[in-house]
Amino acid sequence: MSYARIAGIGSYLPEKVLTNKDLEGMMDTSDEWIRERTGIKRRHIAADDESTSSLGLEAARRAMEMAGVTADELDLIVVGTCTPDKVIPATACIIQRQLGAKRCPAVDINAACSGFIYGLDYANRYLRTGGASKALVIGVETLSRITNWEDRTTAVLFGDGAGAAVLETSDEPGIMATHIHANGEFEDLLQTQNGVSLGFDASAAAGAFIEMNGNAVFKRAVATFDSMARETVADLDGHLEDIDWFIPHQANMRIITAAAKKLGMPMERVIATVDEHANTSAASIPLAMDLAVRDGRIKRGDTLLMAAFGAGFTWGSAMLKF
Ligand code: UT7
């Protein structure tokens, strides 16, 4: 059985930036409150003529360029997103057409903020069992489209963006382990109240926008980051000291620091981009990884631990050699 490795990584952020100062003019909030409680300074927002597929496409192109892989070589496209362009077809199919990857299967996974890790897990299994030899995994969101700009408790937290990875088979890992989980008991803590079968009305009053019990989600997130990181490392008979870089989902700097502290992981080995990107859900981990690869922090051969937590609740981790 072969392994899967990340051959290329890419990301894309919309040009438009919304700062905390900008938000001060839109709602009863302050730059100071947002920075202190979340670490967020600014976020990128998709323009009217941009979409989840257009963001994902650009990130995919950059990852494919790094990997030296062309569209006709792709055997599988997986898109982690909870903000697809349309109900049907899948955003993965729209990106497939735009890339010109004519034959391969293409599917969306909605695991909210854990979407990229779920996608990695899915693609890794295809590559390891001979079902594919080159796969494109994208994490992409336009959360601004389901943000209630009149709700200061959520509106300051989210941003838009995309990250993508090209996986290819390899004789050596690559991806050493993935673990994914879910517990639907916590549906009410982080959700949109309507959607498709419960109603199409895209307004805050109808419940189409993100609602969250921030405190409860915060506590769960910290505890889960700790337990899942330990689960993955222990499964490989490894040690947290073996990890060169910890790349957690970027929801809140306080969650990231608390999780790193619990794990005894020095902040110098943690990739944090939440200050610049805010919470981009499924896009946050590949976006953070791409940034750190391109600025030279993450190098080939480094061991990475990724961990995500989001609505569902869903959570998942991946340990890999880049
Ligand atoms: O992607 C995974 C899912 N997301 C997360 O992981 C997010 C998890 N939660 C969090 O990051 C934090 O809970 C928040 C950043 C959302 C909130 O921080 P907090 O420290 O839990 O604050 P809080 O909700 O307890 O609110 C404290 C106060 C409240 O005022 P009172 O009731 O004490 O008078 C809020 O009304 O801060 C107020 N507040 C704000 N003030 C200014 C809430 N949002 C804002 C705001 N600006 N934007």
Structure overview:
- Helix content is 32%, strand content 24%.
- The chain is of the alpha/beta class.
- It has two domains: 169 residues, Peroxisomal Thiolase, Chain A, domain 1, CATH 3.40.47; 146 residues, Peroxisomal Thiolase, Chain A, domain 1 (3-Layer(aba) Sandwich).
Brief summary:
This protein is of the alpha/beta class.
CATH topology annotation of the largest domain: Peroxisomal Thiolase, Chain A, domain 1
| Distinct small-molecule ligands in the complex | oxa(dethia)-CoA
**Strand arrangement in the largest pleated sheet:** 1-7-6-4-5
- The helix/strand series, from N terminus to C terminus, equals EEHHEHEHEHEHEEEEHEHHHEE
| Structural domain tally | 2
CATH architecture of the largest domain: 3-Layer(aba) Sandwich
- What is the residue-averaged pLDDT? 96
Structural classification: alpha/beta
In percent terms, what proportion of residues is strand? Answer: 15-25%
CATH superfamily of the largest domain: Thiolase/Chalcone synthase
Radius of gyration (Å): 18 Å
Question: Which helices and strands occur, and which strands form pairs?
Answer:
Blueprint: E1 3-12, E2 17-19, H1 20-24, H2 31-38, E3 42-44, H3 52-67, E4 76-80, H4 91-99, E5 106-109, H5 115-128, E6 134-142, H6 152-155, E7 160-170, E8 175-182, E9 190-191, E10 211-212, H7 214-235, E11 245-248, H8 253-263, H9 274-277, H10 284-294, E12 303-310, E13 314-321
Parallel strand pairs: 4-5, 4-6, 11-12
Antiparallel strand pairs: 1-7, 2-3, 6-7, 8-13, 9-10, 12-13
The structure holds oxa(dethia)-CoA.
